[in-house]
Amino acid sequence: MDLPPGFKNRGGKGKVCGLRKSLYGLKQSSRAWFERFGRVIKSHGYNQGQADHTMFYRHTDGDKVAILIVYVDDIILTGDDSNEIERLKKILAKEFKIKDLGNLKYFLGMEFARSNKGIFVSQRKYILDLLGEIGLLRCKAAETPIEPNLILQPANPEEVINREQYQRLVGKLLSLSHTWPNIAFATSVVCQFMHSSGPEHFEAVYKFLRYLKGTPGKGLLFGGYGNLQVEIYTDADWAGSVIDRRSTSGYCTFVEGNLVTWRCKKQSVVARE
Hints:
TATA-Binding Protein; 25% strand
C-alpha cells in the first residue's frame, strides 16, 4: 500500500499502515456496523421494524411518529414530528460522523421531487445510465415491456450465452421495479431464466429496455387525498407456465389513493384441474 500524500515517515523505513476502521471490503464490517447503529438507535426509544429490519420508528405524544431508514451509511429521516427528528439528528451527530443533506432528492438510484400535488418518485437517471451503458440511448422505443402471450422456455445447455451479462441486466431491471409497478410481470418472466439464457431471452430483455427508452420519466406520485381507505386488488392466471404448470399471481395495495405495495410472483404450488 502506498503512503498517502503528505504523510511524513519519521520512523524510518519498514513502517506499515495499520487498519483501524473499515466499513467496506471486510465480510463482518457491515454486520458490526449495523449492530452498533441499531444499538444506539434503540437505546433512545426506537423500535426496529419486523417486516423491514432497516427501519426504526418511535411514536411520540399526540400520535406522531418519527421514522428512520438506513442502508449501509445512507440514512433517511421522515415523520410528522419535526421536534423528534431534530432531536434524532443531534443524537446521530453525537454518536457518528454524519452530514445533513437537507430534503431528500436522491436515494439508491431513486429521485424525489416535491410539488403542491405531493412527492414524485422516479428513476430517470438510473434508466438513462443503463441505456447508455449498453448503447441503447438512440434506439427505437417499444410500446410494451414484453410481447403479449410470450412463451419462453429454458435454453438448451449448448445454446446458453452470456449468462453473467444476462444476470446483470435482469438485476438492474429488478432495481427498477421499486418505482415501476407496470413492469412487475415482465420482470418476473425474464428473471426465471437466470441460468438458462439464450438468444430469445436476450431479445425479450432488449425489448424491455426499449420500452424504458420511451418512458424514462415515469414514476409514482404520493399525495394526500384525505381518505385513509385501503384498497387491494389481486389476480392470477391459470397454469400460465408451460414449463411447470404453475400459476402467476399478483397484487397491488392502495392507501389513501396511493400505490404502496405490489408484487408479481409465480406460485409455489402446481395448479391442477
